Amino acid sequence: MEKGVLVAVEGIDGSGLTTHARLLVESLSSQGFRSVYTKEPTYGPVGQLIRKFLSLPNPDNRLLALLFAADRVWHYFEDPDLPGGGIGGALEQGYIVVTDRYKYSSIAYQGSFTSIDWVWSINSVVPEAFIIVYIDVDVDTAIKRITSRAKIEAYETRERLSIIKETFQRVLEIAKQNGVKIIHIKASEPEERTIESVSREILEKILSALENP
Question: Is the model's pTM score more than 0.90?
Answer without folding.
Answer: yes
